[in-house]
UniProtKB/TrEMBL annotation:
CDD domains: HAM1. Substrate binds at residues 8-13, 70, 148-151, 171, 176-177. It is an enzyme of class 3 (hydrolase). The keyword Zinc does not apply. This is dITP/XTP pyrophosphatase. PANTHER family: INOSINE TRIPHOSPHATE PYROPHOSPHATASE (PTHR11067:SF9), INOSINE TRIPHOSPHATE PYROPHOSPHATASE/HAM1 PROTEIN (PTHR11067). One of its GO terms (cellular component) is cytosol. Coiled coil: none annotated. It comes from Pedobacter suwonensis.
Length: 191
């Protein structure tokens, strides 16, 4: 069976993809291939960072690979925090990062935002890009305790609750990550 690396250290994410591609690809993660370095994410776009990660594995391990990069884009903040989502406030603390967004948006009536995921799949020397977007608004205060990152302030369009108030199963059906992944899986399965 053809090997396919998922450039992640997250075991849960790996199992999910492994199950989805069972019988078609042998899915390995960074630990499985002995890639212990923290691959630098120094690009200024999601696509750039995802491609940095997938290309690193292709170059150093000579295996096909895909990688994802995600973040929050707030319209009134010129699409910040974007690629800086994980450390917008200077720290990796989600609450600090949420407060930074809320402060910058204080009094601003434009609350439009979106979560975006970009996947780079390097297969047979070609880079295939898949994108997932979910539009929504930024609440003025936190609500809910599920999920992670900016979930407590993000209300997806068509819902009255935030991502942090949704069951994981419900969020995973509609999220930016789910949309991008489905596109890649359909491609890999030849749908
Ligand atoms: P990653 O590229 O998936 O690691 O995401 C980078 C950062 O974007 C995370 O550390 C979060 O701050 C933010 N982010 C990405 N996806 C989500 C999400 O589904 N909910 C909340 N925050 C997210």
């Amino acid at each position: 069976m053809k090997k396919l690396v998922f450039a992640t250290n997250n075991q849960h994410k790996t199992e999910e993809i492994r199950a989805a591609l069972e019988g078609k690809y042998e899915v390995l993660n960074l630990e499985d291939i002995g890639c212990l370095v923290d691959i630098p994410e120094t690009a200024d776009t999601f696509e750039g960072n995802a491609t940095l990660k997938s290309s690193y594995v292709v170059e150093h391990f000579n295996l096909d690979c895909f990688a994802d990069d995600s973040g929050l884009e707030v319209e009134a903040l010129n699409n910040e925090p974007g690629v800086y989502s994980a450390r917008y406030s200077g720290s990796r603390d989600s609450l600090d990062n949420i407060n930074m967004v809320l402060e910058k948006l204080e009094g601003n009536p434009n609350r439009k935002a979106r979560f975006k995921t970009v996947i780079s799949l390097m297969q047979d020397g070609r880079n295939h890009i898949f994108e997932g977007v979910i539009n929504g608004t930024i609440r003025t205060a936190l609500s809910g305790s599920k999920g992670f990152g900016y979930d407590p302030i993000f209300q997806p369009d068509g819902y009255e609750i935030t991502f942090a108030e949704m069951d994981m199963a419900q969020k995973n059906k509609i999220s930016h990550r789910a949309i991008a992944l489905k596109k890649m899986l359909d491609f890999l399965k030849g749908i």
